[in-house]
C-alpha cells in the first residue's frame, strides 16, 4: 500500500502514529506566570543532543482558553522553563488522567493525586516519584506546518534520577519499566533490553 497524506489513506484509522513507534512519553510539567501548575503527557518527545543535553516535545492540539495552543506551550512561552518527567508502567493510569482537557486553572498534580516536588535549577514542579526528571530551560519554540503544531526545545539544566533505578553505575530502565506510546490507543512496556555494539567497538 502507498498513500499521499494529502489524499488520505482510506483506512478506518490513521496509520501514521502506528508506524513511528515506540515513542517515549514526555510528562511535561510547567508553572504559569500566574503560579498555576500544569502536568500533561506528550508522545512526540525525545532527546535531541548530548552536549549540552537537550530534549524536545511537540504539541499538536489547541484549547479555547490558550490562544491557539495548550497550557504547556503557553506556560513555557511565559516562563522559559519546563520539566520533562519520565513515565513508568506503574504510573500509566495517573499519567493518562492528566491527559484530560482541563481548564487552565486546574492543577493536574492535585486532580490526579500526584505528589509534586520542587525543581533545583528552575521555578517549576516535577513529578516526585518519576524514575527521572529533566529540568529544562527553553531554547526555542518552532511553529511547524499546521494550525496548532509547535516543537519546544529545551536545554537540560538539572537531572533527577530515582535511586532504585541506578544499578552498577547505570540508569537501568528494567528497574522501572518505561511506558512507550504506540499507535491508536496502544502502549508498550519496555521490560527487556539487549546489547548491540557498533562495528569496531
UniProtKB/TrEMBL annotation:
Recorded GO molecular functions are: FMN binding; oxidoreductase activity, acting on the CH-NH group of donors, NAD or NADP as acceptor
**Any idea where the Flavin reductase like domain is?**
18-173
Q: What SMART domains does the annotation carry?
A: Flavin_Reduct
UniProt-recorded name of the protein: Flavin reductase (DIM6/NTAB) family NADH-FMN oxidoreductase RutF
- Originating species: Rhodovulum adriaticum
